[in-house]
Structure to design on (140 residues):
């Protein structure tokens, strides 16, 4: 009976750490998927198959919806064109930038990230979170 009690107490102590470990693994997976998608999208933008002209026109985009991360050819200002690459996004992991949910990233024909159709003068800072686990990164 004492052994069962000790095992029960150890299980109660270990469960929160296991949950955090799983969330941390999901955040690391999301970060890896996002970096892969960004590299694919940047390569697509530099090839410029949609013939985007000027710094403010998007040549590729990344869409995050329904637990899917997709690199697409843009359809005007909407990220809904042909899917070039896709990956599975870990369920429940939130992607944000400047404390706003991020569901699409547009890139111009020079490989610069666009914000409101204007190239960013710096890297795109982002945050990933799930539960109490958070991580930050930059796309450049």
């Amino acid at each position: 009976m004492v052994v069962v009690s000790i095992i029960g107490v150890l299980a109660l102590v270990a469960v929160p750490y296991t949950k955090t470990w799983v969330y941390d693994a999901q955040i690391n997976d999301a970060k890896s998927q996002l970096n892969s998608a960004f590299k694919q999208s940047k390569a697509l933008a530099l090839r410029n198959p949609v013939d985007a002209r000027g710094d403010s026109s998007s040549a590729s985009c990344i869409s995050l919806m329904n637990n899917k991360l997709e690199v697409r050819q843009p359809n005007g200002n909407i990220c809904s064109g042909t899917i070039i690459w896709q990956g599975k996004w870990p369920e429940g992991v939130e992607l944000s930038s400047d404390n706003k949910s991020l569901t699409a990233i547009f890139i111009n024909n020079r490989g610069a990230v666009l914000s409101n159709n204007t190239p960013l003068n710096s890297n795109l800072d982002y945050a990933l979170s799930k539960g109490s686990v958070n991580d930050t990164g930059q796309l450049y």
User: Anything to note?
Assistant: The helical segments are 2-47. The beta strands are 58-65, 68-72, 83-88, 94-97, 100-101, 104-108, 113-115, 118-119, 124-130, 133-139. The chain has one domain: 2-139.
